[in-house]
Amino acid sequence: xxxxxxxxxxxxxxxxxxxxxxxxxxxxxxxxxxxxxxxxxxxxxxxxxxxxxxxxxxxxxxxxxxxxxxxxxxxxxxxxxxxxxxxxxxxxxxxxxxxxxxxxxxxxxxxxxxxxxxxxxxxxxxxxxxxxxxxxxxxxxxxxxxxxxxxxxxxxxxxxxxxxxxxxxxxxxxxxxxxxxxxxxxxxxxxxxxxxxxxxxxxxxxxxxxxxxxxxxxxxxxxxxxxxxxxxxxxxxxxxxxxxxxxxxxxxxxxxxxxxxxxxxxxxxxxxxxxxxxxxxxxxxxxxxxxxxxxxxxxxxxxxxxxxxxxxxxxxxxxxxxxxxxxxxxxxxxxx
Amino acid sequence: xxxxxxxxxxxxxxxxxxxxxxxxxxxxxxxxxxxxxxxxxxxxxxxxxxxxxxxxxxxxxxxxxxxxxxxxxxxxxxxxxxxxxxxxxxxxxxxxxxxxxxxxxxxxxxxxxxxxxxxxxxxxxxxxxxxxxxxxxxxxxxxxxxxxxxxxxxxxxxxxxxxxxxxxxxxxxxxxxxxxxxxxxxxxxxxxxxxxxxxxxxxxxxxxxxxxxxxxxxxxxxxxxxxxxxxxxxxxxxxx
Lengths: 336, 240
Known about the structure:
In chain A, 71% of the residues lie in helices and 4% in strands. Chain A is mainly alpha-helical and 336 residues long.
C-alpha cells in the first residue's frame, strides 16, 4: 500500500509557479513595445496599483462566489455603499484631508475606510440573511435575488445622496508623485499597492494557515460533513459573506479616491471586470484572484497605451487566452 | 455490558416518505454491531438520524443516557460520535493532512494518535500533502475512517466502508477495523458485504421496511443459513 516507512519524512507539496511568472513575463515583454523606460515604469506601477484595488474588491467576491458557491451579482452594491459611507467622514473633514500632513490625512482616511468596511459588512449580513439564505444552492435564483438587490441598493443611494456625482479629492499628502530620476510614481498608487498587499497576505494566511480557513474551504465542498465533524458551518459562512462585503466596501473607498468621485452605479460598472478577474484566477483562489487582477490591470494599461481601440475587448481576450491555457483558471480551488 | 446508544420508537420522514417506522435498538459499549438489510431498508437513514443529519419525527435517541434526538449534528459530533458516510465525503480540495487537521477539532494533531493511524493506513503518510481528491477509492475510504478515529470517539457510525473497493483493499480495511475494535471502540456499521460483516460483527441487527426484524449475535446468524435466507434473501456463503 505504500513505499514509505513510518519514520520517513512526510512529502512536501509541489508549487505551481507558472501563473506567478505570467505578470512578470508580460511586464518584461512590454519593455520594447512601450519604448521609453520611464513610460514603462509609470504604466507598470499604474497597473500594479489598479490591479491591487481591483483585487481588494474581487477578493470578497472570490470568497463568496468561489468558496461559498453564491453568485452574488449584487457585490457591486457593497463597493458603492462603502464609497458613499466613507464620504460621511471624508467630506465633513475635508479641511483635515487637505492639510499638508500625512498623519492628519491618514487619521481621517483610516476611520472612513473602517466605517465603510463596517457598513458594507453589516449590509452583507442583511443581504445574506434576507436574499441569499433562502436560495443557497440555487444559482438562477441567486442571480435574480442579488441583481434585484443591486438595483434596490443603487436606487436607495440615489434617493439618499441624490443623482449627482460626488467629487472626492485625494488627501493633500497623497496627491502628486514621488520622483525618482525621470520616473514619476503617483503617491496614491503606492498606498493602493501597500493596502492591496496587506489584504492579500492577510487573506492567504487566514485561508491556508488557520483552522477557520480550512473550515471555509471544506465547508464549501461538503457542508454536511463539516457539521458531522462537529463544526457550526452556518455562522462561519455568514462571517465569510460579511468579510467579503467589507472588503468590497474597502475597495470602494480606494477606487473612489483613485477616481476622485463617487456615484451610485460605480459598483455595478465594476461587476463585470471583477467577475472576469475571479474567473481568470480560478474560482475560490485568492492567489489566482490576485494574479488575475494584476493581469487585467496590466492589459488595460499597456493595451490602452499601445492600442487604445483594443481597450474595449482586452479583458475578454485575456480571459479567453487564460481559459484556453487553463480551463479552470490559473489556480482553481473548486471545480464548479 | 452497558448500553451506549439506544433508539426507542424512532420514526423518520424524508419529505412525504416514511422511512424509519419505529426503530428500537440498543448498541452495547465496546462491541461492533452490524446493521444489515436489503437496499432501501433504512440502514443509512438510521445512521443519519442518529447523527442528526435527518431529524427524527418521533421517538427518542439516547447516547450514554443523554437524549440527542433534538440536538444539532455538530452537537452530536461533539458528544463523541464519529461518522463515516457511505460516500466517504473526504474534502477533495484539501490535502490529506488538512482533512485530518479538521477532524482533530479539539487541538493540533496528536503525534501518537497520528502514528497509530499511519500504522493502519500507511498510504495516508505517503500522500500526506496530496489533495484528497487525487486518492484512489480505497485510500479515500481510509482517509474517511482515519478522520473518524483521529480523536477518541465514544461511538463510530460507519456506512458501507467496503462498498466499491477491490477485494485486496477490502481485506486490508477489515484488518484495520479489527485493530480499531481491539482498541475497545463501539461501532455501529452498515455493511452489504456479508463476509466483512461476519468478520467484524459481534452483534447483528437486520432491517426491513424501516423496522428492525432481527437482533442477535453475528455468530448465530452466520451459522444459520436458513435464517440468512429468510432475513436477507441470500446466505452469507453466497457472498464469499
